[in-house]
Amino acid sequence: MSFLDRIREINRHDPEAFAPFAVDGRRLGAVRNDRIEALLAATAAIVRSGDGGLIFADGLAAGEPGAVAARNEAMAGAAARLSAAGAIARLRGELYPAACRFGETPAFVVDRAAVPFFGLRAWGVHLNGYTWRDGALHMWIGRRARDKPTYPGRLDNMVAGGQPAGLGLMENLVKECAEEADIPESLARRARPAGAITYVQQAPEGLKPDVQFCFDLELPPDFAPRNTDGEIESFALWPIERVARTVAETREFKDNCNLVIIDFLIRHGLIPPDDPDYVALVGGLRP
Questions:
Q1: In what order do the strands lie in the sheet with 54-56?
Q2: What is the pLDDT of residues 205-220, one digit of tens each?
Q3: Which residues in the chain are classed under CATH 3.30.750.160?
Q4: 20 to 30 Å CA-CA from 223: which of 16, 182, 184, 254?
Q5: What is the pLDDT of residues 132-181, one digit of tens each?
Q6: Residues of the chain with CATH 3.90.79.10
Q7: Which CATH code is given to the segment(s) 15-114?
């Protein structure tokens, strides 16, 4: 196994298994073919289009009075019924924007749990928390709680979280830092934005064409994280060589965390440009 394997694995998906979900003439998502009937039974707000895709029903198109508010209401109802039927997970009570690009006005908002069912793009923030011990680079690694609905017990970045509607990236990062690692705001705001990684993952819950904004934070050598929201079971400080080896040789990390760490290793010169896979790795992080 290798770093390149981690990138290839997360990007495996079958486009033919999904029907496009278009809003106002733009493809915003995709619903798995075998789940379309469950969706149509859960809401009259979404119908089949002439080309076999999915669109909003008449009256919910752009330009219609109150269209966005009506879409929000319709999607809330659809998500609730899909959850009650077991087609999606328990609702999270956190709204995500449906948009093609980060920062644009969303076509609607929907509960986080429903985002992959509809194949909508989600954004998130991931923090590489690192420090130096005896002149050697170390990274803080979290282990997800065993009762997490996704990737229970897997390794994780020190801090990571989805990006809800109506919250800025740094504000979200500060919030997640406090909740997941007890990092005070004054320290969290020292995090440096370091780019973004992208992928399209076919997961059990649906399609995830996601973007993760990466941040680096050098922590004081005596700082020790402490989880406050129950989502992280424990933290460990690993030499960066162990982190790299675990990513390359195992599947212990949550899938998208592998990409965030590979990006860190490239940016910090720990995967050198004369590595045979270097160009493929750089391109694979942002397909």
A1: 26-32, 18-23, 54-56, 46-48
A2: 999 999 999 999 999 9
A3: 15-114
A4: 254
A5: 999 999 999 999 999 988 899 999 999 999 999 999 999 999 999 999 99
A6: 3-10+122-284
A7: 3.30.750.160
